[in-house]
Amino acid sequence: MIMKVKIYIYMFSILIIISLGGCIEEYVPSDEETKQEIVVEGFIEAGEGSSPAYVLITKSIPFLSTIELSAFDDLFVNEAKVTVNDGSNTVELTELCLEDLPPGIKEIAAQVLGFDPDSTSLNICAYVDILDLLDRKNGGKYDLKIETGTSIITSTTTIPLFIPLTKLRWDDPPGTPSDSLARLWVTIADNEEEDNYYRYFTEENNDGFIIPISSVTDDSFFDGQNFEFPLNKAENRDSDFDANTFGLYNRGDSIRVKWMNIDEAHFDFWNTLEFSRNNSGPFSSFNRVSSNVDGALGVWGGYAVGYYEDVVPL
Question: What is the Cα–Cα distance from 169 to 171, expressed in whole angstroms?
């Protein structure tokens, strides 16, 4: 009897394998999936220490393709007309490319765009409100218009009201107390009258802000509450993952937190992008990244910004 059961199980397993094999089809991308599209990445901030508005415009790379490093410069869209309306005036952004800037200005531009100027050989081009003419304020609404070739691309974003961190505190990480690592807790007083969306970056010892693996959250679980939660240190994606130190801060280091409020469409972009980026492996599911740009892919997003500095206690 036991032998018969084993035979039945074996035969059933073979049938499952044959059935699954019969479902596998060759994937052939459609013309729609391989065509090159315009990609927009633009941001406008408000708050002390915030940066002027800027927009990056590039062309997409087909998924099933190869590209040489030297060809990346050709992906930037040049000589576009990019304007932003802040409700009272319209400002045309100025195109700036890194190779055209003197070293000191190049470093400032790199800081605004969020990268190390010594870590790339790309001639990155961006459209920037270099005179800072836009009225950047919490509660403001900003309309973006891009004209390039025969394409007209539009988007609208808002800079929400800012909900600050009200408290930062440190304690030992879970488990065995550590002489070298600490955990950061922060507190916010969430506004119960509206849905709120948050994003953050962290920095250690003035080495530049790093974006966490999961950088955004909404207030679904703490709507209207005075809420305390651990704020993980952002980890460099090029570093090896260590479960014993992940999210923890080194004692004695100077740290900064860039804490931001964003609107729902801006949140949806980062939430779907990060889910797609982190959802890998053989059992991952397809996820389409949300865009709030009409006529292109990407995001035009507003930030209400606050900065917080501290030293991790010894």
Answer: 7
Q: How far apart are CA 190 and CA 164, in angstroms?
A: 9
pLDDT confidence bin for 102, thresholds 50/70/90: confident
Range of weakest confidence among 24-33, 43-52, 68-77, 90-99 = 24-33
- Return d(Cα 198, Cα 211) in angstroms, integer: 13
- 88/164 Cα distance (integer angstroms): 28
Q: Which residues contact 180 (CB under 8 A, 6 or more apart)?
A: 250, 251
Do residues 201 and 210 lie in contact, with contact meaning Cβ atoms separated by under 8 Å? yes
pTM: 0.82
Nearest to 157 by CA among 270, 312, 17: 270
Q: Work out whether strand 38-46 and strand 297-311 pair parallel, antiparallel, or are unpaired.
A: parallel
CA distances from 103 to 96, 97, 107, 275, 314 (A): 14, 12, 6, 37, 38
Residues 68-93 have a mean pLDDT of: 86
As a whole number of angstroms, the distance between CA 78 and CA 70 comes to: 17
Tell me: the pLDDT tens digits for 258-307? Answer: 999 999 999 999 999 998 887 655 555 556 889 999 999 999 999 999 99
pLDDT on residue 99: 79
